[in-house]
Amino acid sequence: MLVAFSVSPLGEAEGVAEAVAEAVRVVRESGLPCETNAMFTLVEGEWDEVMAVVKRATEVVQASAPRVSLVVKADIRPGHQNQLRSKVDRVEELLRPGGGG
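Predicted structure:
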């Protein structure tokens, strides 16, 4: 499964970068394939391991805030791996000159 999620503290007077960094640290330390961009962190793996990482990342943020916002989007496709890269690679191939489309 491939999950894109965003977790952020609410009710904080200051910026959210420190809490978000702690959540991203949890994801990276999990050892699962992952990627972080300006809006989401993507993580790939089996259902139980991915959802456990999302839960731990949320709990880390929750420890520093009275309220937490969590947005999750999942692509559940049994039997497929390395979708974190291969989905992007397929689109990039089509965008190359002579790549089709």
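Summary: The radius of gyration is 16 Å.
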